[in-house]
Design brief:
It comes from Micromonospora andamanensis. With 516 residues, the chain is an alpha/beta fold. The protein contains 16 helices and 12 strands. Helix 4 (114-126) crosses helix 13 and helix 6 (168-183) crosses helix 8 (210-217). The structure holds pyridoxal-5'-phosphate (PLP). Pyridoxal-5'-phosphate binds next to helix 6.
């Protein structure tokens, strides 16, 4: 059968529709100039804000900003990029929290490298979706190369594989899904129902809360996560892990995974990976290493040894958007045995029919929890191609060095007490009143943190340790100097001292615990 050929001439009854104003906003061959101008205008606004920021924040309060956002009528467009950007200055850019500023010292947010921003601009415009080859083509191959590269850096061996995810939370969930399915691999459906409530995950008291969330999402029992207390060095003790595995087994429970952390969120400490791997290997338990924070060590010219033993893991979480200076989001789950990824596979005729496996069509959706998925890998690709891994590792080394300096500054300052020295780039400390009003120390630290953020001069984090309020620096900016740290310490001491001065002799105000 010969198919009819459709050309403009052959279909005179279907002339090209005239472009409507709405279509002028769609990226197409006709609108590329507008695209160039719009993106350049946006880039220019951000560049100006970055150049002019005098602090990491303006200290705006939600009740100040919310009315401005609320007042915008989303059904009445401005119709113009410049006007929309002017409006955006008021509701977002002016009061954004700027991670590039050297006195942003709070959470695990890094300043971002320019090649990755280039990648971000390219990937959102091309808009590949990483679920199937027919929606991404080269994007799939680039992501696969980066997973292979990461697995090699970890040392997982020739059967390794993995997939990019939205972040460490998803990577941890994914890892624990695989571990759960491996633990239940031989179970009948009836067995599964009996075994599911008996599954246990052993994790560190200093581990990330996404482990608990994952357990909940995976349908495990409310007490499924067995929390192992750390030693004073805030690292999980291999003996305690061994003990908990034995205890669970005696109680007829199945330990489906041990989660070790390479870079705890608060303390930046790294569990003794090799020894924990030994415990897991002896017990035949899946070892997941949450290296969301510590993954920067994979490219560190001087500190890679801190991850020794990670190569023995069954699965590893890597957050490039924490310590590879990548924009959110950019994370991966990497596994030792690619066959385990089958636990997240489902075939659908409209997307990834099973025959495509036989045809060796590389559909990343076969490994992912997501369907439509951003081509986040492009940011890391351009980073490696422009800067190279050593340059990224040098940046991470720099922030670790800076955090060591910060720790020394705090430790030498009688106004403060400091906890465990980080192996990465955090400092957990608290201001201590020396005179009267010592009972106000928790409130004073909490208020100092709030007052600092409200001033916009610096942003630090807070956490609770042993039921006491602490402050935390997370140093991820190589531009942060020892002078910045000293200045922020003075500000904290001033705010905390003022609070005690004003409240000594009165009951501490009712204080709620902040999100750390
Ligand atoms: C150790 C650790 N694991 C996992 C996560 C979660 O990562 P994400 O915020 O990318 O979901 C974090 C976040 O801070 C973390 O510190």
């Amino acid at each position: 059968m010969t198919l009819p050929v459709h050309t403009a001439e052959a279909t005179p009854t279907h002339p090209q529709p005239r472009a409507t104003p709405a279509r002028a906003h769609v990226l197409s061959a006709e609108t590329v100039e507008q695209y160039r101008r719009a993106v350049a205008a946006g880039t220019d606004r951000v560049a100006r804000r970055v150049a002019e920021a005098t602090g990491p924040f303006t200290g705006v309060r939600p009740d100040e900003l919310a009315p401005q956002v609320e007042a915008i009528d989303l059904d009445r467009p401005l119709g113009d990029t410049t006007a929309a950007l002017d409006e955006l200055e008021d509701v977002y850019l002016r009061d954004a929290v700027w991670f590039h500023h050297p006195r942003y010292l709070a959470h695990l947010n890094c300043p971002v490298v320019i090649p990755a921003l280039l990648g971000e601009a390219v990937l959102s415009a091309v808009n590949s979706s990483m679920d199937t080859w027919d929606q991404s083509a080269g994007g799939t191959l680039i992501e696969r190369r980066l997973i292979e590269w990461t697995a090699d850096r970890i040392g997982l061996g020739p059967a390794a594989d993995g997939v990019f995810t939205s972040g460490g939370t998803q990577s941890n969930l994914h890892a624990l899904l695989l571990a759960r399915e491996e633990a239940l691999a031989a179970a009948t459906p009836a067995d599964r129902r009996i075994m599911l409530p008996q599954l246990r995950i052993i994790a560190s008291a200093a581990g990330h809360f996404s482990v608990q969330k994952a357990a909940k999402l995976l349908g495990l029992a409310p007490d499924a996560v067995v929390v192992v207390e750390t030693g004073p060095d805030r690292r999980m003790r291999p003996g305690a892990v061994r003990h908990e595995i034995a205890r669970c087994r005696r109680a007829g429970l199945t330990v489906m995974a041990v989660v070790a952390t390479a870079g705890t969120t608060d303390f930046g400490t790294i569990d003794p990976l090799d020894e924990i791997a030994e415990v897991c290997a002896t017990a035949g338990v899946w070892l997941h290493v949450d290296a969301a924070y510590g993954c920067g060590l994979l490219v560190s010219p001087t500190r890679r040894h801190l991850l020794d033993g990670i190569e023995r893991a069954d699965s590893v979480t890597v957050d490039y958007h924490k310590s590879f200076f990548q924009p959110v989001s950019s994370s991966a789950l990497v596994v030792r045995d690619r066959r385990t990824l089958r636990h997240a596979t489902w075939h659908a005729d409209y997307l990834n029919p099973a025959r495509m496996v036989a045809q060796r069509i590389p559909n990343q959706v076969d490994k992912s929890l997501q369907t439509t998925r951003r081509f986040d890998a492009l940011k890391l690709w351009l980073t490696l191609r422009v800067m190279g891994p050593d340059a990224v590792g040098e940046l991470f080394d720099e922030v670790c060095d800076r955090a060591t300096q910060a720790w020394q500054l705090v430790a030498a300052d009688p106004r403060f007490e400091v906890l465990t020295r980080s192996q990465l780039s955090t400092v957990v400390f608290r201001w201590r009143p020396t005179g009267p009003g010592r009972e106000l120390a928790d409130a004073a630290n909490l208020r100092a943190r709030e007052a600092l953020a409200a001033s916009g001069l610096a942003v630090v984090a807070g956490t609770r340790v042993d039921s006491r309020q602490y402050l935390k620096f997370t140093v991820l900016n190589p531009a942060t100097t020892a002078d910045d740290v000293a200045y922020v310490l003075d500000l904290i001491a001033e705010h905390a001292g003022r609070y005690v001065h004003e409240h000594a002799g009165t009951a501490a105000a009712d204080l709620t615990c902040p999100v750390g």
